[in-house]
Amino acid sequence: MDAKVLIESFAEFARSKNVDRPTMIRILEDVFRAMIRKKYETDENFDVTINADKGDLEILRIREIVDDNSEDIWDFDKISLTDARKIEPDFEVGEEVYEKIELEEFGRRAVMMARQTLIQRIKDLEKDLLFNQYEELVGEIISAEVYQILGREVLLMDGEGNELILPKSEQIQKDRFRKGDTVRAIVHKVEMVNGNPRIILSRTSPIFLERLFENEVPEVYDGLITIKKIVREPGERAKVAVESYDDRIDPVGACVGMKGSRIHAVVRELQNENIDVINYTDNLDLYVSRALSPAKVTSITVDQDKKRISVFLKPDQVSMAIGKGGFNIRLASRLVGYEIDVFRELNDIEDEEDVVLDEFVDEIDGWIIDELKKTGLDTAKSVLSLSKEDLLRRTELEEETIEEIFRILKQEFEQ
């Protein structure tokens, strides 16, 4: 393979990978200089000129002519007068010899290795470019097409044929994909694994929800409304705290849109995730009340040292505060940054007939009582009013533990 064929085939391959001309020339020169170092131990006194468009290559070896008896005759950049005159009979001591080195002199094996090296360098460059391209897109929404569905992940293809990965852990539980589907997600992270870029997407990240709001709500995109915080139970429920720096703009109304037109588009994308948009405020009591919406809070007690908040509600508001599966209270706690304990307010008659759970501390472990309180169950009758199945769903208690709780509480009223 001569130099022209080698360079032209490489240039064509490089152009197909969208490699710019300066980079292509640099890679060619690096590979040819590596060949020179392998054969001559150094490339310091070599000049390499490449014209990729025409496939031209010129390698010149530059050496200074010294007397045959000179001590420097063995230096890499020196040549004896006798050897110099074999190249050109008119040479004299002190002049420089520019000797052209043909590619064939490196041997067929070296040339074939150079070809493989060139192709590998482009592939490595392509991987680096892909890594850098997607690293700049981290946190941004992209669309890609499903081409393979595996047990633990879905493989997608972008418009340029690059493989992207949507792990099971980053999918909304209700997501169901088929080959050929177009999927929207954010670029979650980009990492190098064994020299190959691995691009991870996410549909469960709060940032995905934030980007969807930016797409659907111009005021958010323009910065007139700020999203202060987002918490999610992907596919189930989310709470979004928003704030407007312009008193003329209602941030909640703008995000919801006329008859819910704006938020409906977001909800559909998130598999009907229930989204609560609330006004952010620095007033902690008010913020907690809004976070527990739609429940109406009667009173709030804050323990700053323990980062806990006790919330008191009417009995008919407790289940709303906790929400289906406990999602509402968990998200509210994460939104305000405090652990929220829900308590029922009892009237005088109920106070006389009922017994607070703290009275059973000798028979029921304290951590179990705390677990019940987290779900708004702070009295014996409030626990007994629920079924075993309800308690299993609301708490993390074992079935045997719940049966024992029922036994102890019922025994109190039987007495």
From TrEMBL:
Pfam families to which the protein is assigned, alphabetical:
KH_NusA_1st, KH_NusA_2nd, NusA_N
GO MF terms held by the record: DNA-binding transcription factor activity; nucleotide binding; RNA binding
This protein's UniProt keywords: Cytoplasm, RNA-binding, Transcription, Transcription antitermination, Transcription regulation, Transcription termination
Segments forming domain S1 motif: 139-204
Q: Which Gene3D superfamilies match?
A: 3.30.300.20, Nucleic acid-binding proteins (2.40.50.140), NusA, N-terminal domain (3.30.1480.10)
Under the heading PANTHER family, the entry gives: TRANSCRIPTION TERMINATION FACTOR NUSA (PTHR22648), TRANSCRIPTION TERMINATION_ANTITERMINATION PROTEIN NUSA (PTHR22648:SF0)
Q: Which family does this protein fall into?
A: Belongs to the NusA family.
Entry protein name: Transcription termination/antitermination protein NusA
Please name the source species. Belliella pelovolcani
**What gene does this protein come from?**
nusA
